[in-house]
Amino acid sequence: METDFEKALAGGQTKEFVVALIFFLAGCPIEWDNIDSRQDIITRVNGRHERIEVKDEDNYADSGNICIERYQGINQQKDSGISISESTVFIHALDKKAVLYRTQSMRVWLGSILWRRLLMLTRKRCNSLA
Fold first, then answer.
1. Domain layout of the chain by residue ranges
2. What is the DSSP code string of 22-76?
């Protein structure tokens, strides 16, 4: 009997294959030999070398939300996911649609959001002490 992890892994691998097939059918060569644990797909798009990370978001398809992992562990705050990924592009596959973004752009955006929240919390705390 398949465990939940094995089912999720198989589902993710299927999404990776489907995304690779879409790129291939669009005329983008897939570098199957260079794929390792640091990215799911390596291809060339308009002459640009792209390392693509595919995330299976079927669990969130009805909500339209995606999950972006930045840290591992509740208390450890160990960098993980997008924080350490070597991909240039992330693709979140939601049933029959997808969300794509450049990895570095999302890192910058997430960092600015966290910085603004930290500033808001600091201001609230300083105002409560006054």
1. 4-103
2. HHHHTTPPB-GGG--TT-SEEEEETTEEEEEEEEE-GGGTTTT------EESTTT
